[in-house]
Amino acid sequence: MELEDRSDDVRELEARLHQLDWLAAEWVDGYYGTTTREGVNGFQARRGMPRLGYVDAATWDRLVAMTRTPTRAELYPPKPTPAPNASALDSRCTTGRAICVDKSTRTLRWVVDGSVRLSMDVRFGCPSSPTREGAFTVRAKVLDGYSNFYDTRMPFSLFFSGHQAVHYSDDFAARGYNGCSHGCVNVRSWDTLSQLFNEARVGDKVIVYWS
User: Fold this and answer.
1) Spatial CB neighbours of 118, under 8 Å, sequence gap ≥ 6
2) What is the rounded distance in angstroms from the CA atom of residue 111 to the CA atom of residue 54?
3) Rounded to the nearest 10 degrees, what angle do helices 190-199 and 34-46 cross at?
4) What is the spatial distance between Cα 168 and Cα 145, in angstroms, rounded to a whole number?
5) Is the four-CA dihedral 154, 155, 161, 162 of positive or negative sign?
6) Which positions of the chain have pLDDT values less than 50?
7) Between helices 8-19 and 34-46, what is the axis angle to 10°?
8) CB–CB of 29/11 below 8 Å?
């Protein structure tokens, strides 16, 4: 099994990774995306195996030996229930092109002329380095961004305020909300952010707010 595969075998792989806390239940969907690959990489590294990013026979045998056969509930977990106010958009997001970041629901939505085109989970800065709130614009796009100061990669960076940017986070994908950024808007989904990066333009609005 490898990137872009879709099958029941992938679903079982994801359910077994979830049993070992290498993947959140919401990502058990039968699609081998980048989040599933990060879970596989983590499992392989923890067991002293090469970080292949795909599942070879040795990885599968080791995973099966450490887990039990997934139940139907584990293979088909319920979809997350949106927060009650998740549909509320800040008025500044309802016109033009806007990256709309709602801190209260930890959601980023890509909105064009009032229509939500993409939605993704995000997390924010630690109390010592909070993500700034307000109305900004995309001032730069950097496909393969990297922070020399924090020694971490920042794929699909959309800079909006100083060094703060919307970008993909390996740590968020692996650890979820058990962590925080240094002020940036961390995105968990590689695929969804990749689409946003391709569609967004320098000058588009970035609205960061509490609803």
Assistant:
1) 109, 110, 192, 195, 196, 199
2) 34
3) 140
4) 10
5) positive
6) 82-86
7) 50
8) yes
Q: Does domain 8-75 have CATH number 1.10.101?
A: yes
Give the whole-angstrom CA distance, residue 138 versus residue 203.
5
Give residue limits of the domains in the chain. Answer: 8-75, 91-209
* Per-residue pLDDT tens over the stretch 122-176: 999 988 889 999 999 999 999 998 888 878 899 999 999 999 999 999 888 887 8
* CATH homologous superfamily of 91-209: L,D-transpeptidase catalytic domain-like (2.40.440.10)
φ, ψ for residue 129, nearest 5 deg: -145, 65
Sheet harboring 97-102: ordered strands across? 134-137, 205-209, 97-102, 107-112, 115-123, 185-187, 164-168, 152-161, 140-147
Global pTM value: 0.60
